[in-house]
Specification:
Blueprint (H helix, E strand, L loop, with lengths): L2 H29 L1 H23 L18 H42 L11 H18 L2
Helix pairs in contact: 1-2, 1-3, 2-3, 3-4
Amino acid sequence: MQLGVFVALMIVAGAMIAFQSPINAALARSVGVYNATFVSFATGVVIAGIVAVLTGGGGSLRQLSSVPWWQWIGGALGVAYVTTIIVAVPRIGVTTMMVAALAGQLTTAMVIDHFGWFGIEARAMDWRRAIALPLLAAALYFIHKR
C-alpha cells in the first residue's frame, strides 16, 4: 500500500478515538469508571478474537512464551490510557484531552523513533520534528485556555 493510504487510515483511527472518548465517558457515568474500562476492553477482546479466528490470527500464539516481557504490557498501557480518558473527558473536554494525549504521544513517539526502540527503524530527530513540539504545546495552551 502507498504511504498516503496508511496516513488516511490513521486519520480515521484518530477520529475513532475522538468518538470512543466521550462514548466511554458516558458509559462511565452509567456504570462507573472501572466497569466502563472493563466493558470497553471486553468488547474489544471479543471483536479481536472473532477477527483472529476468521483470519487465522496472522501468526502463532505458541510464540507467546518466548517474547520479551515488554511485549506483554501493551494491554496494560491501553487500560491505563482508556481509564485516564474516561476520567479526563468530563473534566477537560474531548478537544483538550485529544490535544494533551497527542502531545504525550508525539513527544514519546519522537524519542522512540530517534533511538529506534522496540525493534523499529531509527528516525533521527531533526529540526522539523523538534519544532512541532512547541507548536503542539501552543495548540494545547490555546485550545484549553478559557
